[in-house]
UniProtKB/TrEMBL annotation:
<dbReference type="Pfam" id="PF05223">
    <property type="entry name" value="MecA_N"/>
</dbReference>
<feature type="domain" description="NTF2-like N-terminal transpeptidase">
    <location>
        <begin position="40"/>
        <end position="154"/>
    </location>
</feature>
<comment type="similarity">
    <text>Belongs to the transpeptidase family.</text>
</comment>
<dbReference type="InterPro" id="IPR050515">
    <property type="entry name" value="Beta-lactam/transpept"/>
</dbReference>
<dbReference type="InterPro" id="IPR007887">
    <property type="entry name" value="MecA_N"/>
</dbReference>
<dbReference type="Pfam" id="PF00905">
    <property type="entry name" value="Transpeptidase"/>
</dbReference>
<feature type="domain" description="Penicillin-binding protein dimerisation">
    <location>
        <begin position="162"/>
        <end position="331"/>
    </location>
</feature>
<dbReference type="InterPro" id="IPR005311">
    <property type="entry name" value="PBP_dimer"/>
</dbReference>
<protein>
    <submittedName>
        <fullName>Penicillin-binding transpeptidase domain-containing protein</fullName>
    </submittedName>
</protein>
<keyword id="KW-0472">Membrane</keyword>
<feature type="domain" description="Penicillin-binding protein transpeptidase">
    <location>
        <begin position="377"/>
        <end position="648"/>
    </location>
</feature>
<dbReference type="InterPro" id="IPR012338">
    <property type="entry name" value="Beta-lactam/transpept-like"/>
</dbReference>
<dbReference type="InterPro" id="IPR001460">
    <property type="entry name" value="PCN-bd_Tpept"/>
</dbReference>
<dbReference type="InterPro" id="IPR036138">
    <property type="entry name" value="PBP_dimer_sf"/>
</dbReference>
<dbReference type="Pfam" id="PF03717">
    <property type="entry name" value="PBP_dimer"/>
</dbReference>
């Protein structure tokens, strides 16, 4: 059907001019719309602006048969057709001037949607206009204006396909986190006989799992969740690794109302395995979606904490997106029509390759497993500084104390003080240095653990027996900045780039004579992390500082440069003394551990109460240097040293 509208009356001379121009242009087939105020492009632009804003009141609308349409109805239909994309209207761009054939103008419009993840979906559509009897151009509305494959009642909908999450790899290039079997333990409300008894029985069973679940399973809200759920629903309680489930299966399998679903979840080799460093992969939480609504939806897997959180975008890749057409079925429910309008294939994530060694990490986790206090163990490869293990306890602890603790190092710092004294020629291995019971500096009295005294003994004995008073007396020989300078040669206070957060230490400098005396044996204002002390220990074993390395790919952009070679004579003497700590000194519990172990114990006061102390041990054997820290661990010989022994005995010797 051809639309026809009466033309307004024009003066004869104008009519003759228009007829002549029209005749000339129509000979070419079309008339290109002019840019004047009465041209169709003004109406097109108003329509495109109204499409985006949802307000078409300034635009005349008709259907293909020429009947007028309320502008508000068209605006509402555009929104309905947009479906799940309605919240982000497309960018609409007129391409060139409208082409006019008699009373019909046609213009090409680019429709560009921005889909989640900044995905661009663009296509061209034609918008037709008719010249009305009121001398105004009106848009001919039909659903195909939005997309050529849409009909009245259709809706655009989004479907997301999650790409394969990439793995975090160990130093051999093998995935650390892979799909591993779990059992989802749940409750079906209509099968529960006594909810209070069920909660009590489940709680007792979960607490019997060894190693203990940390954090434990909180069942406080289970009665409420069960009461509010549909009778046949599966109310999930917890997902247990298969080995943990097998421990308690006889206790929970036949409890009235319990249900079990076998599944697979991306998990590390064990619950403890470098958990604080690696982080976890969990279903998207409400705060994840609220913070990144364009990135996550319900059901997505998201990295939380550690490397999984920091490199989540790299590991998860890009989700696939498909724009489909839905149509109301009987009852009004929208159902897919099978029509796909746009597809972006999911992009797989990129792997993260680390220096972690599975055997060393398992040894570190196992060494901390029996420790109830917060603790950490870091192991480095001496030859190149690779981080082989970063364990935190107790259990699968969430805080990475191994890298980020800021605590006094105690007598492990005598390793740093001794290097500074040796470099200055202030001490020798066998030169006598008195070890009195107490030593006073500016009115502040320093003493040794258990108030021991050695008298005048070779300095190597002061070191092996960890004599605080000897070091307090030697502090002036280091000068105001000598301790910090020695620490810097071992990498402390450096600008390290490991690809994750790490505290490299803060060494006391200047200060009063009493502060300098305290700092000489790791008290005062000096603070370190286990990683920083493991790095310093590895530097002594190696003969120069090399920044610890954790990530191989992507490699950190700005690792700290390697340090200068340490003075060979100073390092040789220090190594001798660290070996004697194990053979005849405070670390003698390790003397029967296979291989040559070097080390230094440390007990660090962390407040004004001398009874409140952290425990340390740093050392190396072969190509593995390590640091052990136990928060509020008391005497190092009772806590840190036994952990070191468990670690070394479990460590492969080859």
């Amino acid at each position: 059907m051809t639309l026809s509208y009466p033309r307004p009356h024009r003066p004869n001379h104008a009519r003759r001019l228009a007829t002549a121009v029209s005749t000339a242009l129509l000979a070419a087939g079309v008339l290109v719309g002019c840019s004047g105020d009465d041209g169709p492009q003004r109406t097109v632009d108003a329509f495109l602006a109204g499409w985006r804003s949802g307000d078409l009141q300034s635009v005349g609308m008709i259907d293909p048969l020429g009947s007028k349409l309320p502008s508000a109805d068209v605006a509402r239909e555009i929104k309905d057709l947009s479906g799940e994309l309605a919240a982000t209207p497309p960018t609409l761009t007129r391409r060139g001037e409208p082409k006019i054939t008699k009373d019909i103008a046609t213009t090409t419009v680019q429709v560009e949607w921005t889909l989640p993840g900044q995905t661009r979906w663009a296509y061209d559509r034609e918008v037709r206009l008719a010249h009305g009897g009121d001398d105004q151009w009106q848009v001919i509305w039909e659903p195909t204006v939005v997309h050529e494959r849409l009909a009245k009642g259709d809706r655009l909908a989004l479907r997301r396909d999650t790409g394969a999450r990439a793995a975090v790899l160990d130093n051999a290039g093998q995935p650390l986190v892979t799909p591993r079997p779990v059992v989802r333990v749940g409750v079906q409300p209509n099968g529960v006989a006594d909810i209070k008894k069920l909660v009590k029985d489940l709680d007792a069973a979960f607490k019997a799992i060894r190693p203990a679940l940390v954090p434990g399973v909180d069942l406080t809200d289970l009665p409420t969740r069960v009461a509010e759920a549909e009778p046949g629903a599966f109310v999930e309680v917890v997902s247990l690794r298969e080995e943990a489930y097998r421990q308690i299966k006889p206790r929970i399998y036949d409890l009235p109302g319990t249900k079990f679903i076998s599944d697979k979840i991306d998990l590390a080799p064990t619950r403890e395995f470098a958990r604080a460093l690696l982080g976890t992969v969990d279903p998207a939480q409400a705060d994840d979606i609220a913070a990144h609504p364009d990135r996550y939806v319900v059901g997505d897997l998201v990295g939380h904490g550690g490397l999984q959180g920091r490199y989540d975008e790299r590991l998860r890749g890009g989700p696939g997106l498909t724009v489909v057409v839905e149509r109301p079925a009987e009852g009004g429910k929208l159902e897919p029509t099978g029509t796909e309008l746009f597809r972006r294939e999911p992009q797989p994530g990129q792997a993260l390759k680390t220096t972690l060694d599975v055997a060393v990490q398992n040894a570190a986790d196992g060494a901390l497993r029996g420790e109830a206090r917060r603790s950490a163990l870091v192991a480095l490869r001496v030859s190149d500084g690779a981080v082989l293990a970063a364990a935190n306890g107790p259990g699968p602890a969430g805080e990475n104390l191994a890298f980020n603790a800021q605590v006094p190092p105690g007598s492990t710092f005598k390793m740093v003080s001794t290097l500074g004294l040796l470099d200055r020629g202030a001490v020798t291995l066998d030169g006598p240095v008195a070890c009195p019971k107490t030593f006073t500096v500016d009115g502040r009295s320093f003493k040794n653990s258990d108030n021991f005294e050695l008298g005048s003994v070779p300095f190597r004995t002061d070191f092996a027996k960890s004599c605080n008073t000897a070091f307090a007396a030697l502090a002036p020989k280091l000068g105001g900045d000598g301790l910090a300078a020695a620490g810097r040669t071992l990498g402390l206070e450096g600008q390290w780039d490991l690809g994750t957060d790490a505290f490299t230490g803060k060494v006391s400098t200047g200060g009063s004579p009493a502060e300098q005396a305290a700092a000489s044996f790791g008290q005062g204002t000096t603070l370190v992390s286990p990683l920083a002390m493991a790095g310093a220990t590895a530097a002594v074993a190696r003969g120069r500082f090399e920044q610890p390395k954790l990530l191989i790919d992507p490699a950190p952009a700005k690792p700290a440069p390697a340090g200068e070679q340490l003075k060979p004579e100073s390092v040789a003497a220090l190594r001798t003394m660290m070996r004697e700590v194990v053979t005849t000194g405070t670390g003698s519990a390790l003397k029967d551990v296979p291989g040559e172990v070097y080390g230094k114990t440390g007990t660090a006061e962390y407040d004004d109460n001398p009874a409140h102390t952290h425990a340390w041990f740093v050392g190396w054997r072969g190509d593995v240097a390590f640091a052990v820290f136990v928060e509020k661990g008391g005497a190092s010989t009772a806590s840190a040293v036994p952990i070191a022994e468990r670690f070394l005995r479990a460590l492969p010797t080859s």
